[in-house]
Amino acid sequence: MDISESSPLEPMKDEPLLQEQHQAQHNVRSLKHLIDIVTGRTLAPAEGEGESGFAENLPYPFLAIVGQMEMKLALLLNLINPSIGGVLLLGPRGTGKSTAARALVHLTPQIKRSLCYYGCSERDIEEQGMDAVCPDCAKRFAEGLPLTHQDDVKLVELPLNAEIEDVVGGLDERAAIHQRMRLRRGILSYADQNTLYVDEVNLLKDEIVNAILDAAAMGIYTVRRGPISATYNARFNLIGSMNPEEGYLRPQIMDRFGLRIMVNGLQEAKQRWEAYQRVIAYKQSPARIITAFAEDTITAREEIQRARELLPEVVIPDGIANLGLTLIHELKIASLRAEITLFEAARAHAAADERRVVVIEDLLTVAPMALRMRQSTQMDAWFNQQHQTDQELAGHLSRLMAEGEDTSP
Question: In CATH, which of 3.40.50.300, 3.30.460.80, 2.30.30.40, 3.30.450.30 is domain 49-110+152-306?
C-alpha cells in the first residue's frame, strides 16, 4: 500500500416536557389514552438516538496530508488490523493529528451494521446460536429477513467535557418523569463498528479513560444502574491524541494504546508551503479538494479492504518471532502488550503489501511505533531494590540455618 503524497433516580427538570405532559392531560381522548400518558408510552424516542455524535462534515482528504509518513502508516495499519490496540498521537498543536484521524472516514470500507437497537447480527447466530439475539431478531431471522445492512463507518468524537454517564450510558431521564427505569446508550455504544477519536486524552478524567480502554480491549461493556443493567457492543477503531505540553498520561493508561506516534511539525520549507496551499484551497472549497483526491482515495480504500481480507492468512515465521522476542527482552519491556502490538502491526504491514508471510522489514518498520515509551526505569529500579532485599533475606536465612545446625544435639 502506497501512502506517499499523491445514579439515583431523580426527577428531570425539563420545563418543555412538563408543559407537554400538562397539555396532554387536558386532551385525553379515552381511559386507555390516559393510561398511556401516565405510563409514558406516548413519549417520543429519546433525543440523541440514531446519528447523534457522528461527524457529518467534509473531512480533509487523508491522502492530501503532506508528510507525516509514520503517522499515516500507523493509522492505516490500525485500520487494517484493530487487534493492534489503537493509536496514540503525541505532538504539539497544529501538526495535523486531529485532521488525520477525522480523514480516516474516507478510507474505511463499508461494514455490516445491525438493524437492531441491541446490535444483533447474523454473525451472533452463526457463532452462538439463536439465544444470542433478541426475540425480535430471532423472528426476523426465521422469516429469512436480514438483521444487518451495508453502511459507512462513521467518526465518533468524544467531547472533552464528557461525563462518565455520557460515555457508558445511564438512566433515561425522559422515562424517569413517569417513574420508569430505562437505560439510554452511551457514546461507546454509538462507537461500535465505527472510529472513536479521543482528542486531548490526557485531559480526561481517569475513570473515563479507563472505561474507554476497557471497552476497546473487551469489545463489550455492561452498564448497571440500580436493579437494571444492559450490555453493549463496543468494537471500535480507537485513536487518541494529546499535546505533551499539557501533561502526560499515567503509565498504565499509556500502556493500553498499541502504536505511539511522535507527530512533529514539518521541517522542510517546501512541504510547509505545499501544506499551506492545500489547506487554503480546502477552506475555499472542501468539495473541490475531496474530488481532486477522490480517485486515489477509492483505490486506497479498496487496498485496505483487500488487506483486511488477507490478514487472517498472514503468518509469522519462527525466526522473525524470535527476533521480535529478543528485541523486547533486550529492551527490558515487561508488558505483554508489546508482543501483541509488535506482531499484529507486522502482520498488518505484510497484508498491506499483499504478502502472507511477515519478513524482517515488516518488523523493522513497525518496531519503533510499537515499542517506544514502553520501558520503565522506575519499575526497573523498584525490581532491583526488591531483588537486593531478597538477597539480604536469603543471606540471613542461610546464616540462621547454619547457626541452628551448630547448636543442634
Answer: 3.40.50.300
301 is catalytic: no
Alpha carbons 12 and 88: distance in angstroms, whole number: 38
* pLDDT score of 408: 58
How far is the C-alpha of 249 from the C-alpha of 101, rounded, in Å?
20
Place of cell 487523508: 62
Q: Tell me how far apart the alpha carbons of residues 62 and 286 are, in angstroms, rounded to a whole number.
A: 13
Question: What does R_g of the chain's alpha carbons equal in angstroms?
Answer: 27
Domain 314-398 - what CATH class? mainly alpha
Pairwise CA distance, residues 51 & 30, whole Å = 35
Domain ranges across the chain: 49-110+152-306, 314-398
Residues in the chain where the model's pLDDT stays below 50: 7-26, 31-32, 34-56, 176-179
Give dist(CA 284, CA 183) in Å, integer. Answer: 43
Residue 377 has a pLDDT of 60
CA angle 340, 62, 343 (to 5 degrees): 10
Name 288's Cβ contacts closer than 8 Å, sequence gap at least 6.
281
Instruction: State the catalytic residue, choosing from 235, 272, 337, 372.
Output: 337
